[in-house]
């Protein structure tokens, strides 16, 4: 379904976004660590210079030779400004590291959500595969039933052909009997009794043949009705089969 496909696409996009964010956080973390290392390396020489330079008398308690006041004041202000800037920058780096840690935690939570959505998408995929297998099995059954109906239709057609052939034979026999009846009637015209007997006998035969013919015609009409009914059922079944095939094809294309 389209919802599952959209979910899978959004999951892939989320994974790419999380990977990019994680890489960005790692680069920021490394840059922060390098800057803190540089700050630490800069701070130590400054403190060492303060201990050994003009402001050593301020940092250490042991007495040293006092430099001029202007030099001492300028060095003290420079050292204090640099130290304050370093402390401010170090505090900024701590806040940035805390923000990065918080963002990393949010990314981990988002990654867990994406994993859950991917798991749901895999479950939906397995369900779709199960449905597809069931539809393929159903399609096989429908094909087998269609073949059975084709065989039955062929059998009905053969029976219909046999009935038609039998009907033609009966009609031929009827024609022969009618001609024979005329011949017998002309031959028996010399004797009324014979003619009457023959006519009665022929009438019975004709009546019986007509009855048989009517029965055969009824059977033919019944078979034709059954044949048309089964043909319509076969057409409906074939239409249903085509609909199922189109439905399965659409489901496969949508995947």
UniProtKB/TrEMBL annotation:
<feature type="coiled-coil region">
    <location>
        <begin position="83"/>
        <end position="113"/>
    </location>
</feature>
<keyword id="KW-0175">Coiled coil</keyword>
<protein>
    <submittedName>
        <fullName>Uncharacterized protein</fullName>
    </submittedName>
</protein>
<feature type="coiled-coil region">
    <location>
        <begin position="142"/>
        <end position="226"/>
    </location>
</feature>
């Amino acid at each position: 379904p389209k919802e599952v496909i959209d979910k899978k696409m959004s999951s892939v996009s989320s994974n790419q976004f999380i990977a990019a964010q994680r890489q960005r956080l790692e680069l920021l973390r490394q840059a922060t660590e390098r800057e803190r290392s540089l700050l630490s390396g800069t701070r130590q020489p400054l403190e060492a210079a303060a201990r050994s330079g003009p402001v050593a008398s301020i940092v250490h308690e042991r007495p040293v030779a006092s430099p001029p006041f202007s030099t001492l004041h300028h060095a003290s202000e420079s050292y204090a400004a640099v130290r304050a800037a370093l402390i401010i920058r170090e505090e900024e780096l701590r806040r940035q590291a805390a923000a990065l840690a918080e963002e990393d935690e949010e990314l981990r939570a988002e990654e867990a959500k994406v994993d859950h959505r991917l798991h749901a998408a895999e479950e939906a995929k397995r369900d779709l595969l199960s449905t597809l297998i069931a539809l393929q099995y159903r399609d096989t059954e429908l094909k087998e039933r269609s073949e059975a109906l084709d065989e039955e239709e062929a059998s009905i057609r053969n029976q219909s052909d046999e009935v038609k052939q039998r009907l033609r034979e009966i009609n031929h026999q009827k024609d022969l009997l009618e001609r024979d009846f005329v011949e017998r009637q002309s031959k028996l015209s010399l004797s009324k009794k014979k003619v009457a007997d023959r006519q009665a006998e022929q009438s019975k035969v004709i009546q019986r043949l007509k009855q048989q013919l009517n029965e055969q015609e009824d059977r033919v009409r019944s078979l034709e009705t059954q044949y048309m009914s089964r043909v319509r059922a076969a057409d409906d079944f074939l239409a249903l089969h085509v609909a199922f095939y189109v439905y399965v094809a659409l489901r496969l294309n949508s995947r």
